[in-house]
Give the backbone structure.
Amino acid sequence: MGATPSLANIDLDTPIQYIKGVGPVRAGHFANLGIQTAGDLIEHLPFRYETLPESAPIDQLLLGEQATIIGQVTAVRSRPGRRRGSVVADVVDGTGRARVRWFNAPYVAQQVQPGVTIRVTGKVDTDAEGRFAEFANPKYAIVSEDDPFDGDVEQFEPVYPATAALNSKAIARTVASVLEPLTQQMGDPLSDQQRDEHDWPLRSTAFRRLHQPTTLADVSVARRRLAYDELLLSQIAIQKVRRERDALPASAPMPCTDKIDERIRARLPFALTPGQEDAVAGIVRDLARPTPMRRLVQGDVGCGKTAVALYAALVAVANRRQVALLAPTEILAEQHASKIAGYLQDSRVRVELLVGGMAASKRTTLLDDIRTNKVNWVIGTHALIQKDVRFADLGLVIIDEQHRFGVEQRATMFQSAGRAVDGLVMSATPIPRTLAMTCFGDLDITTIRDAPPGRQPITTRFVERDGEDAMWSEIRDRVANGEQAYVIYPLVEESDVMDLKAATSEYERLSAGPFSGLHVGLIHGRQSSADRDAEMLRFRDGQTQVLVSTTVIEVGVDVPNASIMVIEHAERFGLSQLHQLRGRIGRGTRKSDCFLRSDSKSSKARERLAILVRSVDGFEIAEHDLRLRGPGELLGRRQSGLPEFRMADLTTDLDLLQLARDNASRILDADPQLSRRDHGVLRQMLVRRFAHLMPMVHVA
Ligand code: ADP
Ligand code: MG
């Protein structure tokens, strides 16, 4: 990539650095906004528009006032000069002539040329003889040529997401310099007929209208059009992954006979709930088919997903295949292993835990036994299937508590020795159906909506500052009588020093004050994971009575004796996150209480928290969360498994998502490889957007 491309041969893949006026330094500034190429640049859309003042006819301008005129440039004179160089333009609008003068701005002459229509905003002055209205160094913009020459048309100035080093105006200027050449060569993935159906503009027109709008109505239609394109691409990518999986070489079916079913049920100390039965039925069906299972079982904490996983695993083991269960942390892996060992007491099924910190010799023996099929079921973190572990015949991979893998990551996890294996994902974060389509579009979904019988309800209360003392003293009494309590502080970022300080100083305050004489523990994100685990185990074993923690406990260790939770600054958490946290209590036989502490004066924040006081239904709460805060927040910003959308906003575009999903499947039905000529643009866009992310999307 040697020579600077001229405007004529610039394309969507041109690195931003080679756009005229950018260069290597500014390219760095653009990169900070996620903009690497010319294509990224025009997808960097304004987030709002400033209304520019209405324009006035030139013959009615008043000396000394701020005004805007729109007119045609009839002549331009550039006077070079080291200090006082200037560009002077004559502008006419049918009522009169004005003169516009820019000092020390030779670049103006590149845009302001005879014949163009221009909008000028500034203070009205006159020339020395008083013949013309004159503007000195005004704001200006070139008005698109096909616009009607109409001074009443409202004008909008785009405001872009920007940084200190790269302001919105500079972005607008760079966009303006490439918008025409780029949009001129832009094909459209939609047919005229499809666009007409929704009254959508061409893709190229949509970009022009978003960057240089003339009406706000245009803007919103244009954005929806581009949002649709984006959703369509992601749906095609997801559905292609799915279809390619279905076309994979058959994995050996693992049928569940009546006898196997009977033996598994005999291991469970309870009858399955209807929700669990439903999940099991789906899994049994999947396992018996030759195509690999890809199933998500989602349900609130405590709905009994472990029993479902156990059922699936035992079907695999009965078919003489191995099982891997992956947990997000080692401590959770241990917890699973001990629960499962409990269910499987005196059975011949050999279950082993494989975690870091095992003695080397023990580890070597274990790896040998896994390789020679002496171990039926291995439990560990996801390092388990990525490192040096070789299975003799892995048949099923179960991922627990993980909504945090992307589509493509999952595809690699559900493989062993080059073959696809059956895969089961268990998630405790209920996800509204629409959202599941985007981040779990490659999975079949079973939802468990009921809870095992006899569950103790959790009462949730909202506590403001004036109720705080009473709350602490109630907790102190209850803890003194044998209950255990969590006190949670928000930790927005692991590096957030302020939050860390809050948890640490509150820990000190509580230990010295309300909880003096009790055993209080502290967990935060800056501790080593070994320290954290040790502290967690002390709490689990009852050595500490109160655990002060940042949200690192979110992933869910079971402490049935913990029946009290205080969540400080509750307004800073998402509803689903609060619900998730609160699921840590109410797991034993005691009546449990969750105290939401907030001194927020915002009525919105209070309304949000009221939803939590009122409802214990994770799905209802997730729906609210989706509406109030959007999908990124609902799923957790980092590693949400959610594709990054630039145009689409899943809080407002769910209808488009549905449409995109239906159309994606229609398109792939008709043309699985997108090789038809009329899908050429779509195929190109798909490669540009997903090729590097999803090597399994083969679009030749
Ligand atoms: P999850 O993983 O969904 O959060 P668990 O599998 O840990 O939930 O189950 C929570 C508790 O409910 C466990 O103590 C388990 O023994 C119990 N449990 C699960 N299913 C049933 C059932 N059908 N009837 C009674 N108790 C159940
Ligand atoms: Mg669980």
Observations:
- Residues 147-153, 637-641, 692-700 have pLDDT under 50 and may be disordered.
- Residues 305-306 surround magnesium ion (ligand 2) (CB under 6 Å).
- The CA atoms of residues 410 and 423 lie 9 Å apart.
